[in-house]
TrEMBL record:
Residues of the AFL C-terminal domain: 207-297
Lineage of the species this protein comes from: Bacteria, Bacillati, Actinomycetota, Actinomycetes, Micromonosporales
Swiss-Prot/TrEMBL keywords: Hydrolase
Pfam families: AF_1763-like_C, Lipase_2, Lipase_C
Gene Ontology MF annotations: hydrolase activity
InterPro entries reported in the protein's UniProt record: AB_hydrolase_fold, AF_1763-like_C, AFL_C, Lipase_EstA/Esterase_EstB
Matching Gene3D superfamilies: 2.60.40.2190, 2.60.40.2200, alpha/beta hydrolase
Protein name per the record: Alpha/beta hydrolase
Domain AF-1763-like C-terminal residue range list: 318-423
């Protein structure tokens, strides 16, 4: 049948549940463990806000996990990824006493998860629900598992036959993972009722943990240490001594208790390498999906960034595409670096590199830097950002359909410092 809201939902026959039936039972039982499987060049970061929304609706943060993998090499490692998912599900079921888990996957992750569920009845039997986020269509619910498929902009004929198909045609590819509207559909499907809230409710203390990983392989950073600083809300400069945090062999760190009202810098230190500074908006509640995305010297996108003592280089991330010229703005020292050339709608940009290309102190925002535009979900802009020992870089963003966020940072010289900013 069809139901019209802001979206169109197509439910399989018999999907309407009587009061006191399976939907009521779902409302009474404790939440099942949730596992998120990311897409190409992705990580747990895509699901950060949804994990916190789940926690705001009664899910213990300890039962929300992400299954990460080396997406560029997925074809050759697929069986290893399946075996790791087997082990993760076994551990979660044993630790929680739950009967089954719920799986959610995005984009390339839907290829991984559909293959997993179809690979054996035994695997499918341990999964209660599957959420297919803007990924692969299918002729039937994978493995026979009850399925919700959420689709963003694009071909309106896409569907998982026999599933609940929800269409959010005004939302972009990654936005379907992180939006409040998507969360509402997910919660209703998993719990049989509306969520109490789609907001991230502020807790008294935020216990923050995560991993330092190499992008995009998700391999853990080794032989590193981490310093966490409380920073000034206006200048972004450090306030007080650091909290020194051990980085484990898999790149993992924490949990570290932080104030949900403060802003923080995470400084990743590796011998003989530039300090990599990460800046976040306040952690409003506990967060186990923090990822410090970095690379080895001379490798990855970092190797394409020109550096000097004279300029600062910045990387921006947001789990909702930036549409230049369509309501999204990203001002750096008062200059908007998003436009239809640098961040066109069709490019699905969620990562922006900004630095002085050629170290010539000249900016050119008329086109994206070709080597970055060739990457999926990435753009690069030629912007001269003067470095200064005591100065700051003014960063202000406006989200389409939303408000303004300021996230100023020190003007670190790019010759010895890498700087990444993550917007909620």
């Amino acid at each position: 049948m069809g139901i019209t809201r802001r979206s169109v939902i197509v439910l399989p026959a018999g999907a309407v549940l009587a009061a006191g039936g399976p939907a009521a039972a779902s409302r009474r039982r404790p939440p099942r463990p949730v596992i998120f499987i990311h897409g190409s060049a992705g990580s747990a970061m895509q699901f950060r806000v949804q994990a916190k929304r789940l926690a705001s609706n009664g899910y213990p943060i300890e039962i929300i996990e992400a299954h990460e993998y080396d997406s560029p090499n997925i074809v050759t490692i697929l069986q290893q990824v399946y075996a790791g998912l087997d082990a993760r599900i076994t551990r979660l079921l044993a630790g929680t006493g739950a009967d089954r888990v719920d799986l959610l996957a995005h984009s390339l992750g839907t290829y991984v998860t559909q293959g997993y569920l179809n690979s054996s009845p035994e695997r499918a039997a341990r999964v209660a629900h599957y959420v297919n986020l803007d990924g692969r269509p299918a002729p039937a619910p994978p493995g026979g598992v009850p399925t919700l498929a959420i689709w963003g902009e694009g071909d309106p004929a896409r569907a998982v036959a026999g599933a609940a198909n929800v269409y959010l045609p005004e939302q972009s590819h990654t936005q379907t993972v992180s939006s409040a509207e998507s969360f509402q559909e997910i919660h209703r499907f998993l719990r049989g009722r509306e969520p109490h809230t789609t907001e991230v409710r502020v807790a008294r203390v935020a216990n923050v943990s995560g991993r330092a990983v190499l992008f995009p392989s998700n391999a853990g950073v080794t032989e590193a240490s981490l310093e966490i600083y409380r920073v000034h809300r206006v200048s972004g400069r450090r306030q007080g001594p650091p909290r020194r945090v051990a980085v484990r062999g898999d790149g993992g760190f924490g949990p570290v208790p932080l104030s949900p009202h403060d802003r923080h810098e995470f400084a990743l230190l590796r011998a003989g390498q530039s300090t990599h500074h990460f800046y976040f908006e306040p952690f409003r509640r506990s967060d186990s999906f923090v990822r410090l995305l970095t690379s080895r010297p001379g490798e990855g996108l970092g190797a394409l960034v020109d550096t000097s003592d004279r300029h600062t280089a910045l990387t921006f991330g947001r789990q909702k595409e930036w549409w230049g010229g369509e309501g999204d703005h990203l001002w750096v020292n008062g200059q908007d670096i998003l436009n239809p050339a640098t961040a066109p709608h069709a490019r699905r940009v969620i990562g922006v590199f900004a630095f002085d290309d050629g170290s010539d102190a000249i900016s050119d925002l008329s086109r994206p830097l070709p080597e970055f535009a060739a990457q999926t979900f990435i753009t690069g802009v030629d912007l001269f950002i003067p470095a200064s020992a005591k100065g700051a870089v003014s960063v202000l963003t406006k989200e389409r359909g939303g408000g303004y966020t300021s996230l100023n940072v020190p003007a670190w010289p790019s010759s010895a410092h890498r700087v990444s900013l993550e917007f909620d």
